[in-house]
Amino acid sequence: MGGYTKLFNSILASTVWRENNETRIVWITLLAMADRDGIVEGSVPGLADFARVSVPAALAAIEKLSAPDEYSRSLEHEGRRIEPVDGGWRIVNYEKYRYRGSAEDAREKAAERKRRQRNRERDRRDMSRLSRNVTT
């Protein structure tokens, strides 16, 4: 279980945020446990332990997150968030969000590099003007 998961603020406008506390906690726990492919290895009791909820609450959350969601913003998989796989679950739209964040991060880093470059060029021009003024 290494790595991290990006948590987008759009979760606050999602239907999962309207769920009960245990379901939201289990969902965030699943996101935190996911590997780079969106696979979460574990059992319901193990997930319950990580999420610090009861086994029945974890099971209810798994059932809810596996079910279609008619109000989901995502049309993929009928709004389901997870599906069972051998040894655990797969977060069905994990890859979509993983790359979305990477593209946004790359754009922000490129913009920051460009800002620094412009600042350096401006500083060089200013220094050049100052040195010309001092020598004249």
Q: What key phrases describe this protein's structure?
A:
136 residues; mainly alpha; Arc Repressor Mutant, subunit A; three-stranded antiparallel beta sheet; 4 helices; 55% helix; 8% strand; elongated
Molecular structure report:
The chain is mostly helical. The protein has a domain at 9-92: Arc Repressor Mutant, subunit A, CATH 1.10.10. The protein has four helices and three strands, in the order αβααββα. It has helices at residues 21-33, 44-51, 55-66, 94-135, and strands at residues 39-41, 82-85, 88-91. It has a three-stranded antiparallel β-sheet. Helix 1 (21-33) packs across helix 2 (44-51) and helix 1 crosses helix 3 (55-66).
Contiguous runs where pLDDT drops below 50 for at least 5 residues? none
Q: What is the string of SSEs from the N terminus onward?
A: HEHHEEH
Rounded mean pLDDT is 86
Radius of gyration: 23 Å
The percent range for helix content is 55-70%
- Ends apart, CA distance between termini: 66 Å
The total count of helices amounts to 4
Query: What percent of residues are in strands?
Result: 5-15%
CATH architecture of the domain at 9-92: Orthogonal Bundle
User: Strands of the biggest beta sheet: in what spatial order?
Assistant: 1-3-2
CATH class of the domain at 9-92: Mainly Alpha
> What is CATH's topology name of the domain at 9-92?
Arc Repressor Mutant, subunit A
The coarse silhouette is elongated
By secondary-structure content and strand pairing, the structural class works out as mainly alpha
Largest sheet: 3 strands, antiparallel
In total, how many beta strands? 3
